[in-house]
Amino acid sequence: MGRKIFISYSHRQKDWVRDKLVACLRAGGTDVVIDDERMRVGGPVVGQMDTLQDGAEASLLVLTNEYLASEYCRHEMDRAVAKGAFLVVRRDDCSVPDALAGHLHADLRPGSDAGQWTKLLEACEADLGCGVVEWLEARDDARRYLQRGDSVNLVVSGRVRWRELVACLEREMPTMRRINQGRWGDGGPFRAGEGDSAGVRGYARRAGQAAGFRGVVGVPEAAQTGAGVFAI
Predict the structure, then answer these.
(1) Which region holds residue 8: left if phi is over 0, alpha if psi is between -120 and 50, else beta?
(2) pTM to 2 decimal places
């Protein structure tokens, strides 16, 4: 298990934080603490946030112009600095506050070097078993197939965290289910919705071939394969 990390962010960044940052950290083994999963309706906002932040080993500050303009975010940042336990991610061209000057940060602005993700995961003691970009591409490919009603097989090698990828998809899609236990894998194919179908017709789209995911295979609704997660 990686470190216990509190995510401090502006809700203007919520989609990116949930879909990219939290997904990767959690899949890599980080114990993620984030407000919308832990806060109780009717309780004091600041008091609950302080309790969550104090219970984490460190705070991950997702810097944006909106973050620095938010009184709540500034409060969390000041508390993290006072504790001396924080990591910094820069998501846009905002100025880095003086309190954070001299501390290395992960530059995750659009178009930044993918190696910045690696540095962040290492700091959080998280490991996907492959590159973050490749893991996200494989997940997004699988998500797209499932959303249009296809079955999905993952073809993987090495120690890539494919089980966590499947768990990520299962949280997003409660109707997704595993079918047809595979001879080479322990997951079976997974598809959205109900009802099995027959046949072995299908097609494949290669993705992330050098990083543990040898392929993401989408099987149309009119077909069903005999195995799910292939480990090679």
Answers:
(1) beta
(2) 0.79
User: Counting every residue, how long is the chain?
Assistant: 232
Residue with the two structure tokens 């070097």: 113
Alpha-carbon span 47 to 50, nearest angstrom? 5
The tokens describing 63, both together, are: 């810097």
136 touches 210 (CB < 8 A):
no
Instruction: Name which CATH class applies to 4-123.
Output: alpha beta
Which pair of tokens denotes residue 85? 């336990």
In the chain, ranges of CATH 3.40.50.10140 domains? 4-123
| Structure confidence at residue 92 (pLDDT) | 95
pLDDT of 173: 84
Per-residue confidence at 48, pLDDT binned at 50, 70, 90?
confident
DSSP state of 203: -
